[in-house]
Design brief:
homodimer, about 600 residues, alpha+beta, 5-stranded mixed beta barrel, two-stranded antiparallel sheet, about 10% strand, flavoprotein (chains A, B), AcylCoA_DH/ox_N (chains A, B), EC 1.3.8.- (chains A, B), Acyl-CoA dehydrogenase (chains A, B), FAD (chains A, B)
Chain lengths: ~600, ~600
């Protein structure tokens, strides 16, 4: 069940795909060169391999427990979280002025992946805290920042995102939780929130809930939603903790996976807190973030950070499943090889289909990691480049990539973890083996923080149709440049170029089709939205691996780390030959298939 | 959680794809026309909907329990099994002379699907009994038949298949369980068998284990394996039960899915049975089936029946997941439609991507069901046609289809049940919803009774390379005939023809590549084996749906059941536009991708 962080692969991407040398030239990142990346990643690897990873399997068997209004997390979580906070890991990518380390996302994203590979359930708590920090940084008043930010950045307190209600899942227009303005400028919050990750736990002394609610008299729909901070414990003027606020965990869910992560139902304002009885009456005390009715906008800041993070979770769990499958394939002896190369039975990694499965897991994981790395570099440039045009270009590129990182990266994790079970054969189906956990854990990833369809709506509507496919076509042009370099290269490079070319053509057809339909035939455009997302995600991963192949060949020519570079070249070619061609099928589904997807009327099902 | 058997779809396939009118002309099937099929399927639907299906969800929550050497099955299983046996369902496809009903597989397969949709865990017990019956019918002595067959066919006793040992999974050459010949012609069996489905339970008074073991002095490898009957309770001369035999269940597995189905570890011959203490000594008493050292051959009889059955399990669980997803999509209200067709939020079935997901589940399920129906018809002709050439042709066609029914049908069930979770959004991840159970249950199907890779080895080696691709090319010729009919038809038919054409071309390339490599470059051929299986399975399902479209258009022209026929046409076209194009990607993986699949040496992973 052990985990070895793929530090070499992270550093390769950081150096050659994200170009850390360029990032280190940006104001604020002067100390964030390759050496910093090496030092941070090595320390992060050590912590996650030794402290966090060993808790994963047992925590799945003995998940968080709910009793009364409290939640006890799995064995070892509290202590590991203490070490996580003490190590300064929560503050890695947050501003130095709030106590963070201000590192580029390019480096921090690798650390997020390691934490999630080590333990997806554990890692969710810091992931949600990151979202709360982002929202406060962007829209919080000075007072809110002063009260909450430093303690969130240090990991002393944790954060949550409270969006979902029983009737309001993907559709936040349906949020009913209400906020009543009080004379002192605070609000009282009433309502029920569900699916609140780490909505209650015992790892930190306070929990800072960021809650979507409707102020009385606000407009209907998403334009009447406001964002509030609701602390579990009230915070006194000196920063110490006061009374228990009127928000309680009434139950946690029994889930398919990520069982150790408590998913809470939170009840706001039913008057059970002691402080309600001193004449104050019921209601959880909340503090408005930013302005009234702009809650959705702020929430999207958290969501976008979280969506990238969830994409990384997909890569993380695929990596862990891959490592486990490789270990088993090298150990399990079964059957003679088909080429008769050994007299008796061999380890199953000698069987061609086992190799194909392992290569598929590897290529999907490395491809999505490469995309995530390129996206992180764009994010860093979008936030730190002195030239506003460069910032804007990078921001547009990053925003195009986020639904791909999230949507494609999580869908592929379901495939990769399923292959991980398959490599184990019958043993994979036995829970004691551990492969099944990754398969169960991964299944939430294409759902939460916006389902794949929600990501695809974003990609079709805001990221493609809105600008007439300009950014999408810009990506295709970039791909074409890489294609040309590959086409003039080695046999491996040429093979990748050929499949990249076909995939880019398929992408072009899809963009044209989506763009043409988005306004005139929205149903047709959106019937192709998920295939379009999968096509784009697949193409970008294949493109980044094409770039990786070129870099690896250069390194190889310089005599650097031959084994690693050769493996990277093989993986890039495998991706091109086995995964990229899926874009051909997706193209047909998008271009030809909208009619048949919608032809059956709802009541004919 | 309710289940409604898709009786109309079964009957459509039975009438138009399997051509029950032709089957009813065969000797022995004179009474097995469409009316018989209707009557049997309606009664079977009633039984499974009302008796078996309601037990499924609770049984997953409270699975079979092991205590001492006994297993208590989930609440209600014993009574449901009693009704199953009393209803004569076990004997449906078995010979009348053994107490069965002698119905064609064409009809019986639909009943098997219903039982498995109702309750996969429950259905495994009869599925294994079917295998035991087949083995005894083919290779059992008259005495063994007289002792066991009638009681297995009536369901009074159940059967098991004992192949796997800790070191012998896919590789049966590694079987170590030993059989010592006794003076009275019986054998004493010693060893440990694992993963024995219903190896112990409380639903029937006796269990008939069919056990692979090695007689002392037998050749090494698969040529030294023999097959034995080992009853849980000894059977006296008058057919009544005698002493407990020396075989005991020592534990059952904690599994990802099919939790209510007990998966036993069986210990043979450790001398704990009372009868061993009367001077007889340890050893489970076993009776040789057929001849010594021909066990694998007989076991394949059971395996082939079981493989088809497991393919049907895939269709069954996909159907159940589809029905649940449709029900949720019609009920759950969330978000305005993208075309603005309603002012407020609509049920999610109005959202294009939800429709696309439901159509994908539907098309995969109906496509694989159509393949299974065509395969069953071939089986019936192979066993009952008076003309030996027709029998032989049908047998070859059936044998080509079995790995597709099993491999493609089960892989698609993982995809379909995963989509079923996705349609439910966050609720899909909560175990109380029930969608997750299908996803967990389905995951064993591509593994047991031979993994997808084992099916693919069979398809490449025995079914394609051995005859130089003759049968495979014969299938392609049949597809081409359907293509031509479609190309001259309606707009829907033409659309299907176009994608079927491309898929058939891809299949042709794959067959040529596999055939060319199988002997000279076996690693290359087998690296493409699973993609080849998926390509062939996809093509055949698309072809059968093409045939279904033509039949549906004819029925429609005759004014018959317009809603059903229109839905069938839409589903066939959806399959052609969304699923068939996957064959293009698989072709590239097979033709271009063998090198990159194998380029990374085992120790470089």
């Amino acid at each position: 069940m052990s985990y070895t962080a793929p530090v070499k692969d992270f550093l390769f991407n950081i150096e050659h795909l994200a170009r850390i040398d360029e990032i280190a030239k940006l104001p604020g990142f002067e100390d964030a060169g390759l050496e910093t990346a090496q030092a941070v990643l090595q320390e992060c690897a050590r912590f996650n391999e030794q402290v966090v990873a060993p808790l994963n399997f047992e925590a799945d068997k003995a998940p968080s427990r709910h009793s009364g209004t409290s939640v006890t997390t799995s064995q070892g979580f509290k202590e590991a979280y203490r070490q996580y906070a003490e190590g300064g890991w929560q503050g890695l990518q947050h501003p130095a002025e709030e106590g963070g380390q201000g590192l580029p996302k390019t480096i921090a994203a690798a650390c997020v992946e390691m934490l999630n590979s080590a333990n997806l359930s554990f890692a969710l708590c810091p992931l949600l805290t990151d979202g709360a920090i982002e929202a406060l940084l962007t829209a919080g008043s000075d007072q809110l920042k002063a009260t909450y930010l430093e303690k969130l950045v240090s990991g002393q307190w944790t954060g949550t995102m409270n969006l979902t209600e029983p009737q309001a899942g993907s559709d936040l227009a349906a949020v009913r939780t209400r906020a009543e303005p009080q004379a002192d400028g605070t609000y009282k919050i009433f309502g029920t929130k569900i699916f609140i990750t780490y909505g209650e736990h015992d790892m930190a002394e306070n929990i800072v809930h960021l809650v979507l609610a409707r102020v009385q008299g606000a407009p209907e729909g998403v334009k009447g939603i406001s964002l509030f901070v609701v602390p579990k414990f009230m915070v006194k003027g000196d920063g110490s903790l006061g009374e228990r606020n009127d928000v309680y965990c009434v139950s946690i869910e029994h889930k398919l996976g990520i069982k150790a992560s408590p998913t809470a139902v939170l009840q706001y304002g039913d008057g059970t807190a002691a402080m309600c009885k001193n004449g104050a009456g019921p209601g959880a005390v909340g503090y408005l973030v930013g302005e009234e009715n702009r809650g959705l906008e702020y929430m999207f800041i958290m969501m976008n950070a979280a969506r990238y993070g969830v994409g990384v979770q997909g890569i993380a769990v695929a990596e862990r499943a891959y490592q486990k499958a490789v270990a088993y394939a090298k150990e399990r002896v079964q059957s003679r090889p088909v080429d008769g190369s050994t007299k008796g039975a061999a380890t199953i990694i000698h069987h061609p289909d086992v190799r194909r499965m392992l290569m598929t897991m590897r290529a999907l994981t490395e491809g999505c990691r490469a995309t995530a790395s390129a996206a992180a570099a764009a994010y860093d440039a979008a936030h730190h480049d002195p030239d506003p045009r460069v910032r804007q270009q990078n921001q547009a590129f990053y925003e195009f990539l986020v639904p791909l990182v999230k949507g494609y990266g999580t869908e592929m994790s379901v495939e990769a973890t399923s292959l991980g079970v398959q490599v184990h054969g019958g043993m994979g189906f036995i829970e004691e083996t551990g492969a099944a956990q990754y398969y169960r854990d991964a299944r939430i990833l294409p759902i939460y923080e916006g389902t794949t369809a929600i990501q695809a709506n974003d990609l079709v509507g805001r990221k493609t149709a809105r600008d007439g496919g300009r950014v999408a076509k810009g990506v295709a042009e970039q791909v074409e440049l890489t294609e040309k370099r590959l086409a003039g290269g080695s046999a491996d490079a040429k093979a990748v170029a050929r499949h990249l070319h076909a995939a880019r053509r398929a992408f072009g057809d899809a963009v044209d089709c989506i763009d043409a339909n988005a306004k005139a035939h929205p149903n047709a455009a959106y019937a192709g939205s998920v295939p379009y997302l999968m096509l784009a995600g697949n193409l970008v991963a294949g493109w980044q691996l094409g770039r990786a192949l070129l870099a690896a060949e250069e390194q190889l020519a310089q005599g650097k780390d031959a084994a690693f570079m050769q493996a990277k070249i093989v993986t890039a070619r495998f991706y091109a030959e086995h995964i990229l061609p899926r874009t051909l099928a997706l193209r047909d589904a998008i271009v030809d298939g909208a009619g048949s997807a919608l032809a059956l009327a709802p009541d004919a099902f």
